[in-house]
Amino acid sequence: MAVDTAAEEKRLGQLVRAHDRWRGREVFNLLPSENAVSPTARKYLASDLAGRYTLPGPLPFDGETIDNSYAGTRYADAIEALADAAAARLFHAQHATVRPLSGHIAALSALVPLLPRGAKILAIAPEQGGYDGYAPGYIPALFGWTVRPLPAEGPGNSLDEAAAVEEVRRERPDAVVLGQSFFLFPYPVRALAEELHRHNALLFYDASHVLGLIAGGRFQDPLRDGADVVFGSTHKSFPGPQGGLLLTNRTELFAQIAPALVWRVFDNAHWNRIAGVAQTLLELERVGPAYAAATIENARAMAGALDGRGVPVRGRELGFTESHQVHLDRGELRRRHGVSAAVLARRWERHRLITDLVGRLGTAEIARLGLVPGDMDRLADLLVRGGIGRDRVGKEVLAWRRTFSRAKFL
């Protein structure tokens, strides 16, 4: 059947513009895995860099050594060098690369070169809030690694320091991978690193969710506390375009990682994305502390306001949260209100309040918009009325959202 491509192009343009209007100007985004990219970073994503390559050397070819497989890369190479230097400054790292295409790819870029086939790792299980990618059937299955759970049984699936260290002592793994999709509280990095380093094992820290908070000097500083490699996504609490970065203070480890960045874990690193990440790194050098503080303070205020209105929130024993995330108590939510987190999320979506369907709310993007802790009581009221009470609050949400015309912290 023939397709009218002109009509499809028109429809495509309509869909993109509708998405930009809907998600960019007409809703409050409370997804903990997303953020608002600055106008300048967005502009770089649409630059000529979007279709270009660079592959710097030295590279052997035809009996000689060439400095790059491509000509015309002088500006792209300078952009990448600027981005890496900015990342190293911001995170106080000796070595940094923004080449990984995502947090998941950043994890592969570190784990694959540094862990032998058959290695044993400890990671927090998905059932306790861990990232599914580290579960036995995913990344470890590709490389013959054995995975054992690192128990996260404290409030909000936090790690108990004594229990975590004892598990490392008992299992004697080749590595521990810290990181969670449900991520409320910092880890006992120093204690775990000291125990692992006693038998030359490695500590990896997946900062995908909390990278922007670490950049702002909040949450914790895993490199300073002894983590061997830190990696993560650049589009969650870190407010950049989708991508990843990798950091380490250990030169010998970076020397093993660097070859994996070309023709192994991935090839083209998307230099328009790198320019956008570089811009975000520079922005956070200016405003990171204020942005991170606002994000965490908003999360605590939102959690308290929801809990006070009868919406059960996890982690109360430790003050609800120290990150950008708020976690609903899904079991108690069903018992108290007869509704699942997924059903609640669908109700909220109809009222221009965007969350995920697994019981997490995030405050990174609304902090970027300029909402402050004093606004969280109003926001919680809209969430409760629109979700539990089934009131039609969409017009109220839209009117309030339109008062925030541009992102803060740029």
Q: How would you describe what is shown here?
A:
A seven-stranded mixed sheet has the order 4-10-9-8-7-5-6. A two-stranded parallel ribbon has the order 1-12. A two-stranded antiparallel sheet has the order 2-3. Helix 6 runs parallel beside helix 7 and helix 13 (341-350) packs across helix 15. With 410 residues, it is of the alpha/beta class. The chain has 16 helices and 13 strands. Helices cover 44% and strands 12% of the residues. The chain starts with a helix and ends in a 9-residue tail after the last helix. It is globular. The protein has a domain at 42-281: Type I PLP-dependent aspartate aminotransferase-like (Major domain) (Aspartate Aminotransferase, domain 2, 3-Layer(aba) Sandwich), CATH 3.40.640.10.
